[in-house]
């Protein structure tokens, strides 16, 4: 996944104002929000991948977070007056996973950049700006997973579910957020698919993240998912399979390598045209075979 860039001639008025007043020497709004997020992290003295965001909230004059079960979205930043100097409150939906809440909080913090730099639009009645939302996601990723840090921690690590889970846990973010970050920084090239099992026994694609985010892409051999679901010790399965889809004009297929594993009530799979390494730690330890010391065979015990 390459970094998606908003050209200035396609940028909304809100984004153009944000960029012009950001004092960042770039014509790329994405780079501007990354620079502001890095500066905000440094000014707040955040140390470590799981640093609490309280110092950031104080620096941006944001009260909260307050949790609301009835909130219709994951979170929102609420001005306390009609000017940036009056500060804000941040509301988050209650009952959401902590990893998702953490990213939402970082996202809402980044909205304060737009209130500060484009106040004539943000403090008036306005529609949701999709470009602003995307930029806040970019800023949140930089705030929680700084480029230099994530590049260091992901360096020379293989593309595997174990590595993905380890990095997500290290930075207290979801698997979805972590793989998106790794792909944006071009460390990884694989896709992540998540399936849920229906009462009929069939699997429905819950979500897909990667180069092709079209749910129409399906695994041709459903037996792979059946075997992964029934794996007694829930070990990951590795192999190759065809993925593809058919539209009104053509049948599209590709041969990919995969790693798929059951986790809870879902199946998670990484797949790529490149071979995936078996990077998970051993679930078993070797013991000599009972056939005698001269034998080179081994058995595995839990």
Can you give me a brief rundown of this structure?
The protein is an alpha+beta fold and 302 residues long. The chain contains ten helices and eleven strands. The longest helix has 20 residues, at 98-117.
CATH architecture of the largest domain: Orthogonal Bundle
Q: What is the number of beta strands?
A: 11
Q: Regions with pLDDT < 50 over 5+ consecutive residues?
A: 280-302
Instruction: Classify the fold: give the CATH topology of the largest domain.
Output: Arc Repressor Mutant, subunit A
Major sheet attributes:
6 strands, antiparallel
- Count of DSSP-assigned helices: 10
Instruction: Report mean pLDDT, rounded to a whole number.
Output: 87
Give the H and E element order. Answer: HHHEEEHHHHHHEEEHEEEEE
Q: How many structural domains in the coordinates?
A: 2
Radius of gyration in whole Å, from Cα? 23 Å
User: Structural class, from secondary structure content?
Assistant: alpha+beta
Cα separation of the termini: 39 Å
User: What is the C-level CATH assignment of the largest domain?
Assistant: Mainly Alpha
Shape: elongated
Q: Name the helicity range.
A: 25-40%
List the strand order in the largest sheet. 5-4-9-8-7-6
Task: Tell me the fraction of residues in β-strands, as a range.
Answer: 15-25%
């Amino acid at each position: 996944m390459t970094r998606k860039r908003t050209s200035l001639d396609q940028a909304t008025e809100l984004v153009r104002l944000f960029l012009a007043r950001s004092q960042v020497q770039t014509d790329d709004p994405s780079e501007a929000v990354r620079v502001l997020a890095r500066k905000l992290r440094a000014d707040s003295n955040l140390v470590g991948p799981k640093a609490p965001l309280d110092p950031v909230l104080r620096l941006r004059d944001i009260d909260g977070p307050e949790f609301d079960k009835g909130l219709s979205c994951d979170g929102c930043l609420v001005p306390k007056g009609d000017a940036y100097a009056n500060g804000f409150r941040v509301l988050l939906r209650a009952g959401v996973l902590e990893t998702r809440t953490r990213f939402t909080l970082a996202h809402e913090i980044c909205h304060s950049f737009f209130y500060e730099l484009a106040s004539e639009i943000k403090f008036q009645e306005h529609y949701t700006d999709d470009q602003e939302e995307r930029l806040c996601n970019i800023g949140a990723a930089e705030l929680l997973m700084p480029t230099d840090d994530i590049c260091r921690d992901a360096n020379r690590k293989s593309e595997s579910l174990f590595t993905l889970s380890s990095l997500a846990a290290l930075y207290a973010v979801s698997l979805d957020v972590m793989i998106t970050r790794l792909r944006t920084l071009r460390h990884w090239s694989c896709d992540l698919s998540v399936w849920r099992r229906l009462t009929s026994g069939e699997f429905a694609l819950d979500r897909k993240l990667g180069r092709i985010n079209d749910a129409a892409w399906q695994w041709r051999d459903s037996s792979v998912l059946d075997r992964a679901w029934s794996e007694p010790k829930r070990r990951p399965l590795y192999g190759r399979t065809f993925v593809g889809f058919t539209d009104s004009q053509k049948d599209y297929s590709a041969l990919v390598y995969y790693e798929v594993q059951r986790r809870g009530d879902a199946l998670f799979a990484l797949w790529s045209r490149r071979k995936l390494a078996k990077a998970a730690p051993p679930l078993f330890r070797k013991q000599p075979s009972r056939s005698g010391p001269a034998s080179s065979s081994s058995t595995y015990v839990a």
